[in-house]
């Protein structure tokens, strides 16, 4: 289980930067492209799942979750908006935050589903809580330089952690 959690964390850290690949493709994509700032980049490891398994896809989803939830805190103006790709290059405007937060939630839920499937009992969800919380705090404090960003990254892992705690308490014999 430890190696799976290590793979999850390593891939999550790698995928923190993936949404900003659009900065290298500004002739085609605007910064915060709808293509890169979504769950879509997680398809990359999914395409190779027969060779590398599903755990890298879960890690990718966690990295995307953290990046997108932090971006959702940005003002939805200028580069803070999500943009459609060429030939349109139009912003989503006020829907940008909804797009980012919705895709962040989707990424987290898919990562949880993959880990639940791959690890028995509560080990999979617990790994998602630990990795997403750890990577989220790191990214929020180091990259975003924001306690608020770090705190927002803890919302979904915190809710999942409470759910795990509830399940564990139900299994304890009553006194």
From TrEMBL:
Keywords: Membrane, Transmembrane, Transmembrane helix. The chain crosses the membrane at residues 29-48, 60-84, 96-115, 122-141, 147-164. This is Metal-dependent hydrolase. It comes from the Bacteria.
């Amino acid at each position: 289980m430890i190696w799976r959690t290590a793979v999850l964390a390593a891939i999550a850290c790698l995928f923190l930067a993936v949404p900003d690949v659009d900065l290298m493709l500004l002739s085609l994509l605007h910064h915060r492209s709808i293509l890169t700032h979504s769950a879509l980049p997680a398809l990359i490891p999914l395409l190779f799942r027969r060779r590398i398994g599903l755990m890298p896809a879960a890690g990718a989803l966690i990295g995307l979750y953290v990046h997108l939830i932090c971006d959702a805190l940005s003002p939805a103006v200028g580069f803070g908006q999500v943009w459609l790709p060429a030939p349109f290059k139009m912003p989503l405007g006020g829907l940008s935050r909804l797009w980012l937060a919705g895709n962040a939630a989707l990424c987290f839920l898919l990562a949880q589903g993959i880990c639940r499937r791959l690890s028995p009992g509560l080990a999979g969800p617990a790994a998602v809580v630990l990795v997403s919380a750890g990577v989220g705090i790191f990214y929020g404090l180091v990259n975003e330089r924001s306690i608020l960003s770090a705190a927002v990254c803890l919302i979904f892992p915190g809710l999942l952690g409470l759910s795990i705690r509830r399940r564990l308490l139900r299994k304890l014999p009553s006194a």
